[in-house]
């Protein structure tokens, strides 16, 4: 991979993160929960291994689904609330300039 391709991939990644910041947050939360639950594996007590792993999976998936939900809500807010508001302000500014 050349340096130019690497820069293109890096800028593409940064652009994607700026477009949807909840994806890396969801991934980070997923890995944090899995790491924490694997760390706590030794001190699970009387809990069966399968139950502990199921709880870990459910917690990690719940975090990812929550991050995805927040991402969808954020994108809907920007698309249907902020953009029309900015367009309305631009039209009002244009109307004031004509007068």
3D structure, described in words:
By secondary structure, the chain is mostly helical. It has helices at residues 3-19, 22-39, 49-98. α2 (22-39) packs antiparallel against α3 (49-98). It is elongated, with a radius of gyration of 22 Å.
| N to C succession of SSEs | HHH
Uncertain stretches: none
Q: Residue-averaged pLDDT, rounded? A: 85
Which geometry do the CA atoms define? elongated
Question: In which range does the helix fraction lie?
Answer: over 70%
Q: Briefly note the structural class of the backbone.
A: mainly alpha
Number of helices: 3
What does the secondary structure layout of this molecule look like, with pairings?
Layout: H1 3-19, H2 22-39, H3 49-98
Helix pairs in contact: 2-3
Output the keywords.
mainly alpha; 99 residues; 3 helices; 86% helix
Tell me briefly what this model is:
This protein has 99 residues and is an all-alpha fold. The protein has 3 helices and no strands. 86% of the residues lie in helices and 0% in strands.
